[in-house]
Amino acid sequence: MSHRHTDMVQGLLAELCDGHGGWIEHVIVTHNVGEPPLQAPPGGWPFRFTELYNDRPAGFGANHNRAFAHCYSEFFCVLNPDVELPGPELWRSLVAQACEAGAGLAYPVLLNPDGSLQDNEREAVTPTALLRRRLLKQPQRDVDWVSAAFWLVPASIYRRLGGFDERFFMYCEDTDFCLRLRLAGLTLRRVEVPVVHQAMRGSGREVRHLVWHLQSLWRLWTGPVLRRYLAAIAT
């Protein structure tokens, strides 16, 4: 999905072309704002390539759900444009984990550009958990959800869960999805292959992102999914 990230998306596409290893069937790029078409490599795309254009900006979940409508493969990959991919061994490992019995999604190890481990694995987002993490700087106690910067989800699971809840315009849609996945008895599978992620977190820089983040937190805290999940893990 691109928000005037043409250069970044073009770079990621080049990496996908070079390192797909035959594992990638179809790449879908959603232009959430007006942008020119992306440039194909000299030899053409080594996979099916589709560009979607929105008349008006849509939320993270809505954009991925619309992209999933074009998915006819066994797996659906949620992939941010601000990542650097290591090569085809990543896809082989992700598919192997996603094929395991009971797997709900597979994800790689995410690193910051300086090589440090990124905090994409987190416990359920409650006010207490946020207090421990943000103010007290305490480590995460559990891995209840992982950020949707890079997921490989079996298409049957994505379809079964109904995709992302589009009532979350931005933020917490990945939390909600993972908690629903866990409530369905499925697991999150980490693959020990590192991927560098820029993690351009807008809520710390732009007021509108902060507002979206607070709105999403309120929806999560007042909705049934988090309550059901907390009750399930307490028993």
Quick summary:
The protein is α/β, with parallel strands linked by helices and 235 residues long.
Describe the secondary structure blueprint for this structure.
Blueprint: H1 6-19, E1 26-31, E2 48-53, H2 60-68, E3 75-79, E4 83-84, H3 88-98, E5 103-111, E6 121-122, H4 127-135, E7 145-146, E8 150-154, H5 155-161, H6 173-183, E9 187-197, H7 207-222, H8 224-234
Parallel strand pairs: 1-2, 5-9
Antiparallel strand pairs: 3-8, 4-9, 6-7
For this entry, give a set of tags:
Spore Coat Polysaccharide Biosynthesis Protein SpsA, Chain A, 20% strand, globular
Please give a structural write-up.
This protein has 235 residues and is an alpha/beta fold. It has one domain: Spore Coat Polysaccharide Biosynthesis Protein SpsA, Chain A (Alpha-Beta Complex), CATH 3.90.550. It is 37% helix and 20% strand. The protein contains eight helices and nine strands. The chain has helices spanning 6-19, 60-68, 88-98, 127-135, 155-161, 173-183, 207-222, 224-234, and strands at 26-31, 48-53, 75-79, 83-84, 103-111, 121-122, 145-146, 150-154, 187-197. A three-stranded mixed beta sheet has the order 4-9-5. The radius of gyration is 17 Å and the shape is globular. The model has no long low-confidence stretch (mean pLDDT 92).
Strand content: 15-25%
Strand order of the largest sheet: 4-9-5
CATH architecture classification name = Alpha-Beta Complex
CATH class: Alpha Beta
Fourth-level CATH superfamily: Spore Coat Polysaccharide Biosynthesis Protein SpsA, Chain A
What is the H/E order? Answer: HEEHEEHEEHEEHHEHH
